Hints:
It is a single chain. It contains 6 helices and 14 strands. By secondary structure, the chain is α/β, with parallel strands linked by helices. It has a domain at 94-222: Cytidine Deaminase, domain 2, CATH 3.40.140.10. A 6-stranded mixed beta sheet has the order 9-8-10-11-12-13, sandwiched between helices. Strands 4-3-6-5 form a 4-stranded mixed beta sheet, with helices on one face. A two-stranded antiparallel ribbon has the order 1-2. β11 (181-184), α6 (190-199) and β12 form a beta-alpha-beta unit. α1 packs across α4 (137-150), α4 runs parallel beside α5 (168-177) and α5 packs parallel to α6.
Amino acid sequence: MSICESPATRVDRDCVTETIDDVCIEESFRLYLNNEFIGELVATPYQLEELGAGHIICEGLASSVSGVQVSEDEIRVHAETPDEKCMTKSSVTIEKEHIYEVMDSIISEIWERTGGAHCSVLFSDGRLIARSEDIGRHNTVDKVVGHAILNNIDLSTCVLGCSGRQPAMMVSKAANAGIPIVISRSAPTDKGIRTADMAGVTLICFARGSRFTVYAHPDRIILHQGL
Length: 227
């Protein structure tokens, strides 16, 4: 697990205690696409192949990935150039009860131990297929998408669950990957909602306990009569 220990001084009003805290590990990685340097990613150092593959797809830099190599602080992705395309209207639907199941699956041991990580999950055909934790909420999306890409899973049939808020940048990741439904525990922004509406993404936020709020494309949600 990507956690280390750090000495710390804890203050609670008049009580001062020397302690050892668990903290997230943060590292930087140089990302290459077809041997061209793309940029630097700051991330929790695990699932790095998934991170590289997913980042390239989620940022719209390629349409598919043929391979990923990780060596020390370098992530090298080999991929095809992107096609000019718009997200087609997906026929995927989700029942209200499954929204709760997606949210219940967002369990992060790193967050529980450090309070410093986000979590994303990916479901396909009602089954959990990927879960990722990272210091960056955007990295968690890249990692679960990368898992699907590297395992030839059709993202147009998937549902994405996130712990973090949904601005335009986050919603765009799902749209670029072709994911039709995004569920988050946190809030959207106005541009996040606008991006979801234009891209054809069903955006569900504030999904906590028995409640959620739908901001875009509610037609994919099945609400049984009398409930």
